[in-house]
Specification:
It is built from 15 helices and 7 strands. The chain is α/β, with parallel strands linked by helices and about 325 residues long. Strands 3-2-4-1-5-6-7 form a 7-stranded parallel beta sheet, with helices on both faces. It binds guanosine-5'-triphosphate and magnesium ion (MG).
């Protein structure tokens, strides 16, 4: 623990090597991540946390590459955390990310880190949340998180970021039917990237249609960009900053963050309970329980009651 504390002190004092070491530990050791998260809790809350999500290949990394110099125009430093969901596909993309983000990452005012994901989604979520807290505690004023908008992941980003930017491409409506609702709900701002390709107008119309179905007013800003040449990126950065300043001015930022912390805690509690219930069901007493349920000799209510007792360590109640 002392070593951990020393590392944390060094990281907070601005030592990059200590920060890098802590990030590795967070990634590899979820018990460590949990302890650190508790140590960090009182320190966090200063940074503007920006999530960039969207379908594979939408241009998220290229956009971040363009956003970085803009972020450094308004802030002293900026950190980037690229989250890689545990699929072999994105491991390849990770390499690409490193290459494409190479440009500005060499400056000491930029810290770019890819979180390779070992283990389950809960583990990734925990490691990412703690990494963000860590950057925040170490006084990185802007933290940009890149995450794939597939399935649950874009909803996780809502629990981490102050601003969620959803990057889409012309033709999005035809290709990503399945995940349209999730992405639309997750976004505070929308980018139609690759606007150099045909179909940006109809994508904007379609997006507006989906957005107007949600009870959200005012409608989120939609910006068109060409990340490869930087067109529209000034406007995008402007929109990100002005929304954040508005939240601060209205006093809504604190409320938003409270709600976010509660969602994150809820998620963590449920994941832990799920894991414990699964472990308990896998025990021999749990197995006997499962057999009775399957045979129809025990009601689901009674099963729940007995399982809860098992969870509390009450072996006497085991079937
Ligand atoms: N024509 C065009 N190509 C773009 C634009 N933005 C990005 N690209 C290209 O699209 C490809 C994917 O870009 P990335 O930035 O890697 O996209 P990503 O969303 O980070 O991809 P993953 O992390 O793999 O999901 C690259 O070849 C980029 O050069 C754009 O505005 N116009
Ligand atoms: Mg990428």
């Amino acid at each position: 623990m002392t070593r951990e504390h020393n590392l944390l002190q060094d990281a907070i004092a601005g030592k990059r090597a200590a920060l890098a070491r802590l990030l590795s530990n967070v990634e590899n050791d979820s018990a460590f991540a949990m302890r650190l998260a508790q140590d960090l809790a009182p320190h966090a809350g200063r940074a503007h946390i920006i999530g960039i999500t969207g379908p594979p290949g939408a241009g998220k990394s290229t956009l971040i590459n363009q956003l970085l110099p803009r972020a450094l125009g308004t802030h002293e430093r900026a950190a980037v955390l690229a989250v890689d969901p545990s699929s072999p596909f994105s491991r390849g993309a990770l390499l690409g990310d490193r290459v494409r983000m190479q440009g500005p990452s060499t400056g000491s005012n930029v810290f770019i880190r890819s979180m390779a994901s070992r283990g389950d989604q809960g583990g990734i979520a925990r490691a990412t949340a703690t990494a963000v807290q860590l950057f925040d505690a170490c006084d990185w004023p802007v933290i940009i998180i890149e995450t794939l908008g597939i399935g649950q992941v874009e909803l996780d980003i809502m629990n981490l970021a102050d601003t969620v930017v959803v990057a889409l491409n012309p033709g999005w409506g035809d290709t990503f039917q399945a995940n349209k609702a999730g992405l639309t709900e997750a976004g505070d701002l929308f980018v139609i990237n690759k606007a150099d390709r045909p179909g940006a107008d109809s994508t904007r119309r379609e997006l507006l249609e989906s957005l107007s179905l949600l009870a959200r007013r005012p409608l989120p800003t939609i910006v068109e960009t060409v990340a490869t040449d930087g067109s529209g990126v000034d406007e995008l950065w402007g929109a990100i900053c002005s929304r954040f300043m508005q939240l601060q001015a209205d006093g809504d930022l604190a409320t938003l963050r409270q709600a976010r912390r509660m969602r994150l805690a809820n998620k963590s509690i449920r994941a832990e309970l799920d894991a414990r219930a699964a472990a308990s069901l896998a025990s021999s007493a749990g197995q006997r329980l499962t057999e009775r349920v399957a045979a129809g000799t025990m009601s689901s209510e009674e099963t729940t009651r007995v399982l809860l007792q098992l969870l509390q360590g009450d072996q006497a109640s085991a079937p």
